[in-house]
Each structure stands twice: as C-alpha cells, then as structure tokens.
Amino acid sequence: MEEYLKLIPSNASLLSAYSSISTSWVLFKTAYNQVIPRQLQEYAVSKFRSYFRRNPSYATFIIEDLWCGLGRNQLYDAARAYLSTKIGPDNRKIKIGKLEQHKNLSSAIVEGGKIVDLFRDITITWSVIQEEQATTTANTRISKDGPPVMTHAPSRSAYQITFDNKYRGTVENYYLNHVLDTYKDLMQGEKVLKLYTRLDKYEGERWKCVDFRHPATFDTIAMDLELKKAIKDDLDRFLARKDFYKRVGKAWKRGYLLYGPPGTGKSSLIAAMANYLNFDIYDLELSSICSDVQLRKVLLSTTNRSILVVEDIDCNSEVQDRSKIIKEEQLNPKKYPKAFTLSTLLNCIDGLWSSSGEARIIVFTTNHKEVLDPALLRPGRMDMHIHMSYCTAQGFRVLAFNYLGIDDHKLYQEIDGLLERTKATPASLAEELMKSDDVDVALGEVVNFLKRKRGEEDEIEEDTKRQRTA
C-alpha cells in the first residue's frame, strides 16, 4: 500500500505541471492568432468539426402522384418537369421518348437513378422509387368457388429527395416553391389538356393519363345554334361566379346531363366544353368501381378545373330507377351485384364530399334518360339537361361547312325538307359527306341516304299501324 502511495505526485508537483500547461496554451493561442490567418483558422476548425461529425442527420421527403389518396399532387407533376431540366451528362441511363403531338424529345430519370441539385449551397439528391400500394378492400378479386382473394395493386413511382436535416426549413419553404415556380414557367402558355382514365377495377384510385387533343369546338359541333349559345353562356356564367357560390354557401360545381340517341354528338360536345374551358377530363367507368370507399377515393383524386365524365350511365343498374327494378332484384339478386350504392354516388356529386374541390364540372351521358333514378336528375346534381337530338337544317349547315367548306348549295332545300321528316344523326350524315371530295357528289350521297332512311321509317310506321289494327 505504501508503494502505491509513493507513486501519487505531491500537490507541489501538480501545481507546477498545471502552471507549465497553462503557460504553453497561452503561448500557443497567441502564436495561433498572430501567425495563422483567420480564413485558415476557420477552415481548420470546419475540418476538425466535420471529422467528428461524419454522419450528419439526413431528412427524406417522398413526393407521390396522389396526395394521401385525396387528389392529384401538383408537386409530383412539377418535379417531373423540373427534373427534366436537370438531366446532365452524369446521368448515363435515362428514359427518352417523343409523343406524336410534341415537337421535341422528352427525358426522365429511371427508377434507381439520381440527380444531385444545388440550391443555396444545399446539396439535394433526387431519386425515383417504386411504392407498392397497400392491400385494401378495393383490391379484392372475387373468387368463383371460394372466399375473396386479396391482391396488391400495381406499384407506382414516387420521387424521393434527401438532404441535410438542418436545412429542412429552407428546403420545405423555399426550394419546393422554387420547383413549383419553375414548373409554372415551363408550362406558361403551353398547357396540354389531359384525359384521365381508369379501366382496371384493381388499380385502386389511380388514374392513367394521355394528352387530350380532340379538335372539337363549339364552332364545329352540328347542333342548334340557340342551344349551342345557351351552353356557352352557362359555362361562362359558371366560371365567373366563384364569389357567388361562396356567398350562397354552395360547392363551386356544375352538373350537365347529355341525353339522346347514339351518334348525336354527346362525346364531341364534352370535348368542345373541355377545349372551351381549358379543363382536363376524367373519364370514369362505373364498372371499374368495386366499392363505396373506392368510389369516394376515385372522385376525390380528381383535380380542380376539370370535367368528370360518366358516359352511358344508364348501363349501370345502381343508378336506374329503383322503383322499377327492386322487385326483380329481390327475386334474382345475382343479376344485380352491388359495387357501390346510389346514395354514395349522390353524396360524392352533391353532398359533403362534393365540396372538396373548386370549379368542377360533372357530365353524365345517357341514351335512355327515362330509366335513370329521379334522385340523380334533380337540380343541384344535374343542373342543365341537354337534349342531343337528330340533325337539323342548322346542324347540317355546320357539317357541310366543316367537311366541304361551303355555305350554300342548290341541294340544301331538298336536304332541309328530308331532315324535317327523317331521323338522321350528325354522325351518320358525316359519314356520307366523307364519301367524296366533290361537293355535288357528296351532297348527292346525303340526299340518297336520307331518302333511304325515310323509306325505312315509313315501312316501320306502316308495320306499327298494321299491328295496332290487327
């Protein structure tokens, strides 16, 4: 024990050592400040700190095409356009292609590819990842001989950005706004309308889109001039009344029902409305809906300033007049499999769910208005009912000018008389006008067609009379 105590230095020795170290430190600090330039000092300090902090804390943002399943994520579209301007020689593997309607090639980074961007001396790394959608009721396949089989919806691409967490505020408040502003500049005056569709009932709420370049306009539609003007005026009034809708407490939306026989131009009118308003189109197939939940998600994932189209709505039993089919449904329930309920559809287009967006237009088309449930047709749901009738003399003038470039012809009087007594659709007349570039020959084909059509209708009327008198 005494041997160990002898090894402990005395207080005088400790005090002498402390004095020596203090003196050395003062001399070193003085020499450091006087001899070494301040810039070199700061560089040395930064290197020293970075050495002991080699693993900084990183933050990661995920940018999906749908924002929490509630709507289209504008930041996703902005990121895709923004990154196309950042692809450089270091990106040796990229996606590249050209759409027929575009003049230039388009490029994009591939899955697993990365782009390093610099913003205010902050290094931000972009990459493309694949995210598999969660299994939900909407992703259930019905097995014929057993219980439902749960399936995963297809994976979807998402953008991921990674950066030092200490710059999180700058990235969130300034950098992402910079991406959005760049996107707006790129799209300035060059907006291409989109047609969104979803054909697979197992795709959840996901929409697929293509460029929409349908040439139809109100000038080219073959319909009554007064009705055409009434539709345009109604659309203009709707767009100009945002404050009015807010003041009266109504969702800023408008519903149109287009009804009439096939070939009367219902789809062309929708295209003309989209081109007139510069609105994207969402074409919804009700047969692709598996449940009430999926219907809500699908409708909520549409964007503002868009047209939701449900064509041939009469083909779905859920929206037909329940009083006419309820007995047959009770006797044969398998004939009416339930995908969604009418009440859910009504709530999405006219209830609380309808207030989730702005400047929304809903268009239903049907060949048989009489079979639809009256609850679907009342004002506030379908505000304007537009009858797409057979071609009139005014409508034929538009067709003739579109196809032949003429304003008048000696056969017009005869054609007008035949149109008054014959049920001919604009589509069928357009087919006749396309048979020849010669004006006289083309209009002659129209006259022959209308005469044949009139003869067929006369025969049907005679058969009907004979059946009544028999």
Automatic annotation (TrEMBL):
PROSITE patterns: AAA. Keywords: ATP-binding, Hydrolase, Magnesium, Nucleotide-binding. InterPro entries: AAA+_ATPase, AAA_N_dom, At3g28540-like_C, ATPase_AAA_core, ATPase_AAA_CS, Mitochondrial_chaperone_BCS1, P-loop_NTPase. It catalyses: ATP + H2O = ADP + phosphate + H(+). CDD domains: RecA-like_BCS1. GO terms for molecular function: ATP binding; ATP hydrolysis activity. GO terms for biological process: response to stress. It holds the Pfam family AAA. The keyword Nucleotide-binding applies. Residues 252-392 form the AAA+ ATPase domain. Its cofactor is Mg(2+). The keyword Lipid metabolism does not apply. Belongs to the AAA ATPase family. BCS1 subfamily. This is AAA+ ATPase domain-containing protein. It comes from Manihot esculenta (Cassava).
